[in-house]
Amino acid sequence: MTDLGKFIRTRRKVLDLTQTQLAQRLGVDDAYISAIERGVRTPGDVVFIDQLGRALALDADGKRELEAVAESSKRLVRLSDPLPLCKYQVIAALVRDQALTEVDMETIAKVHSAIVQIRNATAGAVGIASGGPM
């Protein structure tokens, strides 16, 4: 279950709505609501998320939270360009590794951040040495 699914289920229950009732408010099939709550489907349409916020009677803070969990629950990453084979292999290995923990992912994020910092520092040093702009 995604954070979006948990959010919708929790709010729906607070409002004492069934999946069918929520689906009727949105003009969708109840199977779609079930799929979203289970994390099988992740709607990315901004209009649908806005309609969902209204159907769940959310205030401004609730709508912002809904938008945030909807964004964080997206399962697709769209790439603008084809990846070099090495990058693809690294990303594919991470996706396939079901044993990665939250701590593992934080470590990977820290390593990536360190690489970016080193790259930026190196680029800055080269700019200074060559007299180029920083």
List the helices and strands and how they pair.
Blueprint (H helix, E strand, L loop, with lengths): L2 H12 L4 H8 L3 H9 L7 H10 L4 H13 L12 H12 L5 H28 L5
Helix pairs in contact: 1-3, 1-5, 2-3, 4-5
Overview of this structure, please?
It is a single chain. With 134 residues, the protein is mostly helical. Helix content is 69%, strand content 0%. It is built from 7 helices and no strands. It has helices at 3-14, 19-26, 30-38, 46-55, 60-72, 85-96, 102-129. α1 packs across α3 and α2 (19-26) packs across α3. The longest helix is centred in the C-terminal third of the chain and has 28 residues, at 102-129. It is elongated, with a radius of gyration of 21 Å. Residues 130-134 have low confidence and may be disordered.
Which runs of at least 5 residues are low in confidence (pLDDT < 50)? 130-134
Shape: elongated
How far apart the termini lie comes to 46 Å
Strand content: under 5%
> Compute the gyration radius: what is it?
21 Å
Primary descriptors:
134 residues, mainly alpha, 69% helix, disordered C terminus
Give a quick rundown of the structure.
This protein is mostly helical.
